[in-house]
Amino acid sequence: MNFMQLRERQPKFPVTVKTGEGVVELIWNKIEYADGYRVFASPVGKNHFVGVINVKGTTAVMKKRANGVPMQYKVKAFRIADGPDNFFGESEIVIACPLETPRRLTAIVGSDGICTLSWRYNSQCDGFKIYADSNESGKYSFVCYSGKNSCRLDSFTKSGKVTFVVRSFIMTGHMEKLGVSSAPAEAVLPKSKGTKAVQFDHSMIRKTAGDYNARRFAGKDGRLCNDHHKCTVMIGGDITVSAEMQKNAAKGMPVFDEAFSSLGGIFGSFDFSVAMLDTDINDKKAYTFEDSRVINCPSTIADAVCKSGIDALAVNAGLLQRAPQSLEKYPLTVITENDCTQGGEKFSIVNINNINVGFISATVNKDISQYVSQLRKAGAEYIFFFCSWNERHTPAVKPKWRNQAVKAAESGADIIIGNGLNAIAEYDVIECADGRRVPVAYSLGSLIPADPATRFEKIGALLCVRLKRDTATGKVNTDLCGYIPYAFKDYGTEHRAVLLSDDNARYFGLSVYDTLKKQVATALGSKIELARYAEKPEQQSFALLGSALISELFKDDNDVETDRSHLFISQLTMNGAHCDVDEKYFRDGVVPLYYNLSKGYDEYLAENKADVLITDLYYAVSTPVYRLGDSLYSGGKAFIQSRFYEENKSLLKRLDIKDEAVWKPLLDKFIDSVTAVYDREKIILVRITDPKLYYVNGRYVRSTDRSCNFRLLLDMENYFIRRVSPKVIDISRFYPGVINKRGRSYAVCRDEHFRNNISLIAKSICSGKKANYVNSLAYDPEIWLTEVAENFDIIKAGKADSFFFGTNNAVDYFISRLSRDFICAEFKDILRLKTSELVTFNEIRACYDFGRNAVLKRVYNGICAIRKGDIANADIDEIIRLGLYAQSDLAKTLESFYNKNGIIRNCVLSTKDLSFYLKCARLWMAGTDKDAVAQLARRYYAKHRPVILDVFGRADGGDISELADGTVKGSVISGYSALTVCSEKPADIDLSYIDDKSAVFTELTRSYFANTHGDWLLVDFSDIVKPIYRHRSAYVASIDELCCSMAYRAFMTDDDVFEPFKENADSKFIEKAISDFARTIKAKYGKNIILRKTYLPLNRLDITGRIRPFDDTEFISEKENLISRAEEIFVKCTDCYIIDYESRYLPVCADKNADISERMLESDFYKEAAAAVDRIISGTSKKTVNNVDIVGYLERCEHIRKDNPDMSAELSSEIFGGASEIFMTE
Q1: Contact 741, 1104 (CB under 8 A)
Q2: Distances (CA, A) of 549 to 555, 615, 691, 706, 767
Q3: Is the per-residue pLDDT at 1216 higher than 80?
Q4: I want to staple 253 with a disulfide (CB 3.0 to 4.6 A). Which of 248, 275, 593, 945 is the partner?
Q5: What topology does CATH give the domain 540-766?
Q6: Residue range 462-479: average pLDDT?
Q7: What is the mean pLDDT of residues 1043-1066?
Q8: Which CATH superfamily is domain 3-96 in?
């Protein structure tokens, strides 16, 4: 049978899925004629299937799959004879998600008899399900959900010996995927004693209804009627209310009003609004915050419901106790089973704009066919069914519920809305036998929530249902079902729903805002769209000109139209008469190439005007300009690779745009063109600066954009602003850049948050809401603080404080001393402090109110006290308790205190044991037996004193000392050659020509080492290859900036210079210099010396992980020989310890000509070297350390192999050494 016949006859075959921790197993039946099978995987929701594994049998086991990340899988069958990539059979698509197993489950029973469970879990998941076995049967029953790694079982009523297990879960395709159960944990729970019911005092609850003018419906002929509105109904989620909100409401605080007001009065804008009441309202019994087993709320919530514009409450049929009676005095329609009650009067029908609507509220087990029949007889033309599922917290739809929904639809319900789950769940459409399509919203989430158990309770949706009468048949049908998403923001202990609209994006931050919108859309599914009115009615249009930064604006933004035709064209070349261009010159290029060649921008502008023009001038500066006849061309990549350039290369003349006489007239033409069409208020200039700090692979690196003359760019921008007076967005200097996929650092490559921030500002300017962005506080503080919080540890590790935090700004100083977790926990109040625009500490102390946030106030006071040296301030303890970065400042302050008062001479402290030293300092200051306190501190310090590790050689040695557990960083002597350090004579040069703080002064005076030194020294010989000058009888190394110094120009330009690695170098001088250096070091540090061996590889890793060669490889073997020889002499003279790891790792740098001393190595090297330093200092290491952690090293090799799939066998052998056979790619 041939291939085509096989493919046509083979149907899709089923696949069974099994998962374990990090493992996915697929099983299927044998396919006839198949020689093998290939498994493909794709992220869920995308059709990006990539081959994962080939197997011969009918089982595929895939290991090392990411836990908590669902993936789609399918299997294809193939025959070897058909050739590669020819598959004749394909399976159904299945979803699999391996989940981590919760570990170390513990069950602790408190003094109150309530059991608290806790466990460890390190991967992604949507939550946990807790099960219990209370009768030792081995069968576990579900107890509750939990959204974190612990759970307090307040409502668990079983007693005696109970065994608990925990399973993680994730939602995929609206179904729960469960992980493996944890190991069981046992607890003995006491019996609850029968006690007399507590009498609660609820006298503070107001018992009378207010005066509400929002009432829109009145009784008429046995119906509720309102004939003045279109028939659009809004359905809100569950009203549940957390215990903390109830407690505040009982104290008279307006928490319910505030909870509804955060939705912006949206309910009153619809013709009829319904919410679902999922709590009892009974002031005569305990509230939930008084008894956790009770679902009951203060009746004042009804006042807030009336004020919000809600017309009706569908009461959860499982809670029909006091609610209907409690609501009689309010102008609210209460829906109970098949009745609507208002003010004690019952109605069957609500007439909305002459459409008769009926409502039913029942439980999942109730047969509603009789209710439907009664409503139809009463004249109902459309029936809403509110169904309680008798469960809580779950986002997964049970098969039983689906069956009941089908029965209800077939019984005659026109729309079904579930309640009581408190979590957002799937939206579906049921196809009935009579042809009706019945929408089912299994749960919309909560309007006022209880304490959330999973992330699905932190989001929700409002359902908009528009009814329309068919003029031909007279029947009422569902014209529209759409949703409006919202999410909850925490305000202290309260949770408030905020609509996910563009206007509210600032409350969440752009990245969180986008994530929440996607979560709501995913939870509901693809069968429902956003409500039409939720989209902005005002459609804005932008003409985009300029660089890659401008090209990324408004991506995937449906609210704006963009004209991108003239992107990547220099503004200096746009103008000129239109000319026809042969199609062969641009058909293989991008769209802007056509406009680059054809010109006629003036004509294009007249016919294609947008609302706003937005541009930057980066491309005008960084792109060459070519002249051919009277036409100018922008020499970008598309132009250089075009046929037009190839054919006219010899005729094209490149202009020097650095010349003001060249660029000014050209820019004038562009300005005249745009100002003739656009009003100055509708022209936006985005200013660009080089951040010189770029983010890549989880860290910040310092780099520069060498493709742009930023001085020229500044001149062009200033000239453009003077002539045009445009709206200006000037915030690029507040955000770091992003290294692109090719490892290049361009100032216009920025992250998505920054680009979205620009887009929002531009849209605000377009609508007339923003003025010029030209002051230092113009950037969005929330987006800035969000980025700082997300990358706080990376900022600290990359020593990037000076970029993110202002040096003379008290708020920035304060934020820089916090921690990632603390900023996230107190984000709202820290943001409020940031937006206060207070600059000094005195202003903050005088003007800022911390409110009820006592923790933040203590932290602020503690940081101020450390800054002043006031260690007696009790608020400093909060810094230690929270583990903030201000601890390093505290350590310095305590060092100064102990040194100044002579308690501990030459005191050096790490951030460990700060509490002890702080207590001793306070006791000493209080005058409590100072001698005894000083003696205690000295003894403790002598026992726990941290080791000071000095560094001589490469500056990255300081990173090793910081990563080591038992050390603190001492002096870092970097950039000097060991050949001149111990030279007998300093250079005979007039030192008045040199700054005494410079490295050149240090080199000339031989003042490398301070009077005091550390305990250990880490040394390497990377800088020994520097050229050496002989000035009279002294030797001077060619350190950085030497040749630029005045001393060099005045005294050393005629001196002899030699390179010590070349053959003509004086070998005796080198040997003597290294020996002298070794003896000097040994005299200072004794046996506490560690040599870090240095290697010079031919290759490097670029920023993206690709292997690239170094350009500067001349004399590399000679340099290695010199370094190796120096190391041998040094080891012989000092008998030092050796760390020999560098040969196993590659340098990581973007610069192909980077000096040896400037090269950073892979991050694993520093971790391994730091661990080796710890072992050496602790005395548990041998003299030479050269064995790295094999597991980590193999993982590193695997990463490199994946990033470099086309690596040759020779290169593989060079990079991986003895492990090359494992990672061979040929």
Answers
A1: yes
A2: 11, 10, 14, 17, 22
A3: no
A4: 248
A5: Rossmann fold (3.40.50)
A6: 84
A7: 82
A8: Immunoglobulins (2.60.40.10)
